[in-house]
Write a structure and sequence with these properties.
With 249 residues, the chain is an alpha/beta fold. The chain has one domain: Alpha-Beta Barrel (TIM Barrel). 39% of the residues lie in helices and 17% in strands. It is built from 10 helices and 8 strands. It is globular, with a radius of gyration of 17 Å. The protein starts with 5 loop residues before the first strand and ends with a helix. It binds phosphoenolpyruvate (PEP). The site of phosphoenolpyruvate (PEP) has 14 residues, from strand 8.
Amino acid sequence: MKNKKKIVIANWKMNLSLKESLALTGQIKKKISRLNLVDKQAILCPDFLAITEISKILKKSKITLGAQDVFYEGKGAFTGQVSPKNLQTTGCQYVIVGHSEKRALGEDYQTINKKAKAVIAEKMIPIICVGETLAERKKGQSDKVVANQIKQATVSLGKKGKFLLAYEPIWSISTSGSGQVIDSQEAARMFAVIKKVLSSRFINYLLIYGGSVSPKTIADFSKIEDVSGVLVGGASLKADSFIQLLKNA
Ligand code: PEP
Protein backbone atom coordinates (compact mmCIF):
# COMPACT_ATOMS: atom_id res chain seq x y z
CA MET A 1 0.00 0.00 0.00
CA LYS A 2 1.21 3.51 -0.74
CA ASN A 3 0.07 6.75 0.87
CA LYS A 4 -0.86 9.71 -1.29
CA LYS A 5 0.80 12.02 1.22
CA LYS A 6 4.39 11.77 2.44
CA ILE A 7 4.35 11.32 6.21
CA VAL A 8 6.87 12.99 8.52
CA ILE A 9 6.71 11.70 12.09
CA ALA A 10 8.46 13.71 14.82
CA ASN A 11 9.64 11.65 17.79
CA TRP A 12 10.69 14.20 20.40
CA LYS A 13 11.65 11.44 22.86
CA MET A 14 12.49 12.86 26.34
CA ASN A 15 14.29 15.89 24.97
CA LEU A 16 11.93 18.75 25.80
CA SER A 17 10.40 20.33 28.89
CA LEU A 18 6.62 20.75 28.90
CA LYS A 19 7.08 24.44 28.14
CA GLU A 20 9.42 23.68 25.24
CA SER A 21 7.04 21.04 23.81
CA LEU A 22 4.11 23.47 23.82
CA ALA A 23 6.21 26.28 22.33
CA LEU A 24 7.54 24.02 19.55
CA THR A 25 4.02 22.79 18.74
CA GLY A 26 2.80 26.41 18.50
CA GLN A 27 5.69 27.36 16.21
CA ILE A 28 5.19 24.37 13.92
CA LYS A 29 1.43 24.98 13.74
CA LYS A 30 1.95 28.64 12.83
CA LYS A 31 4.53 27.88 10.15
CA ILE A 32 2.50 25.04 8.62
CA SER A 33 -0.63 27.21 8.44
CA ARG A 34 1.24 29.60 6.14
CA LEU A 35 2.21 26.83 3.73
CA ASN A 36 0.24 24.80 1.25
CA LEU A 37 1.58 21.35 2.08
CA VAL A 38 -1.36 19.35 0.75
CA ASP A 39 0.76 16.34 -0.15
CA LYS A 40 2.43 16.03 3.28
CA GLN A 41 1.23 14.73 6.64
CA ALA A 42 2.88 15.87 9.89
CA ILE A 43 2.60 13.68 12.99
CA LEU A 44 3.94 14.97 16.33
CA CYS A 45 4.83 12.48 19.09
CA PRO A 46 5.49 14.40 22.31
CA ASP A 47 5.99 12.78 25.72
CA PHE A 48 2.93 11.66 27.71
CA LEU A 49 2.99 14.73 29.95
CA ALA A 50 2.54 17.12 27.03
CA ILE A 51 -0.08 15.16 25.08
CA THR A 52 -3.27 16.69 26.55
CA GLU A 53 -2.11 20.28 26.14
CA ILE A 54 -0.70 19.66 22.67
CA SER A 55 -3.97 18.06 21.65
CA LYS A 56 -5.72 21.36 22.46
CA ILE A 57 -3.17 23.36 20.43
CA LEU A 58 -3.58 21.02 17.44
CA LYS A 59 -7.39 21.24 17.33
CA LYS A 60 -8.52 22.56 13.94
CA SER A 61 -4.99 22.18 12.55
CA LYS A 62 -3.90 19.66 9.95
CA ILE A 63 -1.23 18.25 12.23
CA THR A 64 -1.84 14.79 13.67
CA LEU A 65 -1.10 13.77 17.25
CA GLY A 66 0.88 10.64 18.11
CA ALA A 67 2.40 9.07 21.23
CA GLN A 68 5.80 7.50 21.88
CA ASP A 69 4.53 4.41 23.68
CA VAL A 70 1.49 2.80 25.33
CA PHE A 71 0.61 -0.15 27.57
CA TYR A 72 -1.40 -3.09 26.26
CA GLU A 73 -3.90 -3.51 29.12
CA GLY A 74 -7.06 -1.42 29.25
CA LYS A 75 -7.24 -0.65 32.96
CA GLY A 76 -5.98 -1.78 36.36
CA ALA A 77 -3.05 -2.04 38.72
CA PHE A 78 -0.27 -1.12 36.29
CA THR A 79 1.69 1.62 37.99
CA GLY A 80 3.28 4.09 35.63
CA GLN A 81 1.55 2.81 32.49
CA VAL A 82 -0.79 4.63 30.09
CA SER A 83 -3.75 2.82 28.54
CA PRO A 84 -4.65 2.89 24.85
CA LYS A 85 -8.11 4.21 25.73
CA ASN A 86 -6.71 7.18 27.64
CA LEU A 87 -4.44 8.01 24.71
CA GLN A 88 -7.28 7.69 22.25
CA THR A 89 -9.48 10.09 24.24
CA THR A 90 -6.81 12.81 23.99
CA GLY A 91 -7.18 12.75 20.22
CA CYS A 92 -4.05 10.69 19.68
CA GLN A 93 -4.22 8.80 16.36
CA TYR A 94 -0.81 7.12 16.09
CA VAL A 95 1.35 5.31 18.65
CA ILE A 96 5.01 4.31 18.28
CA VAL A 97 5.48 0.77 19.58
CA GLY A 98 8.75 -1.08 20.01
CA HIS A 99 11.14 1.80 19.43
CA SER A 100 14.73 0.51 19.68
CA GLU A 101 15.27 2.69 22.76
CA LYS A 102 12.44 0.76 24.49
CA ARG A 103 13.85 -2.53 23.19
CA ALA A 104 17.22 -1.56 24.70
CA LEU A 105 15.41 -1.35 28.07
CA GLY A 106 14.13 -4.91 27.68
CA GLU A 107 10.92 -4.66 25.63
CA ASP A 108 10.52 -7.79 23.51
CA TYR A 109 8.48 -8.45 20.36
CA GLN A 110 5.79 -10.39 22.25
CA THR A 111 5.09 -7.23 24.22
CA ILE A 112 5.33 -5.10 21.09
CA ASN A 113 2.75 -7.36 19.43
CA LYS A 114 0.38 -6.97 22.40
CA LYS A 115 0.80 -3.20 22.24
CA ALA A 116 0.16 -3.08 18.48
CA LYS A 117 -3.06 -5.09 18.89
CA ALA A 118 -4.23 -2.91 21.79
CA VAL A 119 -3.61 0.24 19.73
CA ILE A 120 -5.59 -1.13 16.77
CA ALA A 121 -8.42 -2.20 19.11
CA GLU A 122 -8.77 1.46 20.14
CA LYS A 123 -8.92 2.51 16.49
CA MET A 124 -5.51 4.14 16.50
CA ILE A 125 -2.60 3.23 14.22
CA PRO A 126 0.56 1.62 15.61
CA ILE A 127 3.94 2.65 14.23
CA ILE A 128 5.78 -0.65 14.68
CA CYS A 129 9.57 -0.29 14.81
CA VAL A 130 12.04 -2.89 13.58
CA GLY A 131 15.75 -2.80 12.80
CA GLU A 132 19.01 -4.62 13.31
CA THR A 133 22.01 -3.74 15.46
CA LEU A 134 25.42 -3.02 13.97
CA ALA A 135 26.72 -6.37 15.28
CA GLU A 136 23.86 -8.21 13.52
CA ARG A 137 24.56 -6.31 10.30
CA LYS A 138 28.27 -7.12 10.45
CA LYS A 139 27.40 -10.81 10.82
CA GLY A 140 25.18 -10.62 7.71
CA GLN A 141 22.01 -11.25 9.73
CA SER A 142 20.06 -8.06 8.95
CA ASP A 143 17.46 -9.65 6.63
CA LYS A 144 16.77 -12.55 8.96
CA VAL A 145 16.62 -10.42 12.11
CA VAL A 146 14.23 -7.88 10.60
CA ALA A 147 12.02 -10.58 9.05
CA ASN A 148 11.76 -12.29 12.44
CA GLN A 149 10.97 -9.03 14.22
CA ILE A 150 8.17 -8.32 11.74
CA LYS A 151 6.70 -11.82 12.09
CA GLN A 152 6.67 -11.60 15.89
CA ALA A 153 5.33 -8.02 16.01
CA THR A 154 2.44 -8.77 13.67
CA VAL A 155 1.13 -12.09 15.07
CA SER A 156 -2.69 -12.10 14.66
CA LEU A 157 -2.92 -8.42 13.77
CA GLY A 158 -5.64 -9.27 11.29
CA LYS A 159 -5.32 -8.84 7.56
CA LYS A 160 -7.13 -5.50 7.60
CA GLY A 161 -5.64 -3.93 10.72
CA LYS A 162 -3.81 -0.79 9.61
CA PHE A 163 -0.25 -0.18 10.77
CA LEU A 164 2.91 1.68 9.86
CA LEU A 165 6.09 -0.40 9.73
CA ALA A 166 9.13 1.73 10.55
CA TYR A 167 12.45 0.24 9.49
CA GLU A 168 15.07 1.87 11.69
CA PRO A 169 18.53 0.28 11.51
CA ILE A 170 19.60 0.88 15.12
CA TRP A 171 23.15 1.77 14.10
CA SER A 172 21.82 4.55 11.83
CA ILE A 173 19.98 6.39 14.59
CA SER A 174 21.77 9.68 15.23
CA THR A 175 22.37 8.98 18.92
CA SER A 176 23.58 5.39 18.39
CA GLY A 177 27.21 6.45 18.47
CA SER A 178 28.15 4.36 15.40
CA GLY A 179 28.79 7.41 13.26
CA GLN A 180 27.27 5.48 10.34
CA VAL A 181 24.06 5.79 8.36
CA ILE A 182 22.59 3.27 5.95
CA ASP A 183 22.73 4.43 2.33
CA SER A 184 19.47 4.74 0.45
CA GLN A 185 20.27 1.84 -1.93
CA GLU A 186 20.80 -0.57 0.93
CA ALA A 187 17.69 0.83 2.65
CA ALA A 188 15.76 0.15 -0.58
CA ARG A 189 17.04 -3.45 -0.58
CA MET A 190 15.94 -3.87 3.05
CA PHE A 191 12.48 -2.51 2.18
CA ALA A 192 12.21 -5.10 -0.60
CA VAL A 193 12.91 -7.81 2.01
CA ILE A 194 10.35 -6.23 4.37
CA LYS A 195 7.68 -6.04 1.63
CA LYS A 196 8.17 -9.72 0.87
CA VAL A 197 7.46 -10.59 4.51
CA LEU A 198 4.47 -8.28 4.81
CA SER A 199 2.70 -8.43 1.48
CA SER A 200 1.72 -12.08 1.71
CA ARG A 201 0.04 -11.48 5.07
CA PHE A 202 -1.28 -7.90 5.14
CA ILE A 203 -2.91 -5.36 2.87
CA ASN A 204 -3.25 -2.26 5.02
CA TYR A 205 0.24 -1.13 5.97
CA LEU A 206 2.62 1.69 5.07
CA LEU A 207 6.41 1.65 5.10
CA ILE A 208 8.44 4.27 6.96
CA TYR A 209 12.21 4.80 7.20
CA GLY A 210 13.96 6.14 10.32
CA GLY A 211 17.58 6.90 11.20
CA SER A 212 19.49 10.22 11.00
CA VAL A 213 17.05 11.74 8.51
CA SER A 214 17.80 15.44 7.93
CA PRO A 215 16.33 18.05 5.59
CA LYS A 216 19.26 17.28 3.26
CA THR A 217 18.79 13.48 3.19
CA ILE A 218 15.03 13.11 3.55
CA ALA A 219 14.34 12.93 -0.17
CA ASP A 220 16.81 10.04 -0.62
CA PHE A 221 14.77 7.93 1.80
CA SER A 222 11.22 9.16 1.23
CA LYS A 223 11.57 8.53 -2.52
CA ILE A 224 12.40 4.83 -2.10
CA GLU A 225 9.77 2.78 -3.90
CA ASP A 226 6.73 2.13 -1.68
CA VAL A 227 8.14 4.12 1.24
CA SER A 228 5.48 6.52 2.53
CA GLY A 229 7.52 8.65 4.88
CA VAL A 230 10.05 8.98 7.66
CA LEU A 231 10.37 8.85 11.44
CA VAL A 232 12.67 11.58 12.72
CA GLY A 233 14.29 12.21 16.09
CA GLY A 234 17.01 14.88 16.25
CA ALA A 235 15.99 16.90 13.18
CA SER A 236 12.40 17.23 14.44
CA LEU A 237 13.34 19.23 17.55
CA LYS A 238 13.42 22.65 15.88
CA ALA A 239 10.47 24.18 14.03
CA ASP A 240 12.48 25.39 11.03
CA SER A 241 14.14 22.02 10.59
CA PHE A 242 10.82 20.14 10.88
CA ILE A 243 9.19 22.43 8.31
CA GLN A 244 12.15 21.90 5.99
CA LEU A 245 11.71 18.13 6.39
CA LEU A 246 8.07 18.46 5.36
CA LYS A 247 8.94 20.63 2.36
CA ASN A 248 11.66 18.25 1.16
CA ALA A 249 9.87 14.95 1.85
C1 PEP B 1 14.76 7.53 16.09
O1 PEP B 1 15.33 7.40 17.17
O2 PEP B 1 13.70 6.93 15.84
C2 PEP B 1 15.36 8.39 15.09
C3 PEP B 1 15.01 8.21 13.84
O3 PEP B 1 16.25 9.32 15.54
P1 PEP B 1 17.22 10.23 14.65
O4 PEP B 1 16.38 10.85 13.56
O5 PEP B 1 17.75 11.26 15.60
O6 PEP B 1 18.26 9.32 14.10
